[in-house]
Amino acid sequence: MVLAGCHTAQVTDQRAMDIKHRMIVFDAADIDVETAFWAAFLDGTVEEWGDTWRAIWVDGGYALGVQLSPDHVPPEWPDGAPQQMHLDFYLVGIDAVDAAHEQVISLGGRLLKAAEDRAAARGFQVYADPAGHPFCLCWIPEPS
Amino acid sequence: MAIARFPSIVIDCPDPGALATFYGAMLDWKVEVSAGWAEVRADYGHCISFQQVEDYTPPVWPDQKVPQQMHFDVIVDDLDVGEAAVLDLGATKHDHQPGTTFRVFLDPAGHPFCLCVE
User: Fold this and answer.
1) A 10-49 residues with CB below 8 A of B?
2) What's the number of domains chain B is made of?
3) Cα first-last separation, chain B
4) S-S: A54 plus which of A6, A35, A82, A133, CB 3.0-4.6 Å?
5) Structural domain of residue B69, as residue ranges?
6) What residues 62-101 of chain A have any CB closer than 8 A to a CB of chain B?
7) ipTM above 0.95?
8) Residue A92: which of A123, A114, A63 has the closest Cα?
9) What does the alpha-carbon distance between residue B37 and residue B17 come to, in Å, rounded to a whole number?
10) Where on the phi/psi map is residue A84: left (φ > 0), alpha (ψ -120 to 50), or beta?
11) How far is residue B9's CA from residue B86's CA, in Å, rounded to a whole number?
């Protein structure tokens, strides 16, 4: 859960493929609960693609998908079943993280790790979504 | 109003630079590598990050012994052309191919991803 920095050691131009859209897809045993959480979190609209798939549309693009995985084993971060990947959300200032925290909890999210130093200029708190996928609410300073 | 916007995904892996190079080439995004962390970033700001973890265990899909937890879908114009390109970058085609409108591959760290047609 390291905060992304600008410590550029190498910048490389790469060649292209014809990628039109990119979607991150969560596995979950209950796709409606999982989708409702993320649609509310992102203020998105839900598209139902059959019985096993949901897509969340935000600002003209697919923000997230949720795929039925009936035997889904939730991650147990930092030990246990691997998280494999997680989402970070950046907000300006810890007050914004505190406000988001209340909404996340009310939607069914769980706090996994509180901020280590609330006085720091940058930091993060770790949460789990209803299916157990970790995500972080990170705070950054006001842009100068 | 949304609680937060612009999710930035962070992928666990043993070698962030290698995986960032793979996805940077696939998406034509710029690659930035630092100690234990790497990013690929689009001109329009989207970002995928890669985080080094100890004792990394690749997912085993589709069973749930070591769950994939989540995966990427990317849209291409032509599955055959896309397949050749990602194999050339170091992807592996998965033995299990449950659909006809998408194909499942593994990235160099073993994370499943799909090439899809609209």
Assistant:
1) 10-27, 40-44
2) 1
3) 30
4) A35
5) 5-116
6) 63-65, 69, 71-73, 75, 81-91, 100
7) no
8) A123
9) 8
10) left
11) 20
Given an 8 Å threshold on Cβ–Cβ distance, is A9 in contact with B34? yes
Q: Report strand pairing: B8-13 vs A85-92.
A: antiparallel
User: Sheet containing B47-52: which strands, arranged edge to edge?
Assistant: A11-12, B30-34, B37-41, B47-52, B8-13, A85-92, A134-140, A123-128, A110-113
CATH number at residue B24: 3.10.180.10
Q: Which amino acid does the sequence have at A37?
A: F
Residues of chain B found within 8 Å of residue A52, distances taken between Cβ atoms:
none
One digit per residue, the tens of pLDDT, for chain A of length 144 reads: 333 332 222 333 334 456 666 789 999 999 999 999 999 988 999 999 999 999 999 888 888 999 999 999 999 888 888 989 899 999 999 999 999 999 999 999 999 999 999 999 999 999 999 999 999 999 999 887
Residue with tokens 């300006």: A92
Instruction: Name the residue type at position B75.
Output: I
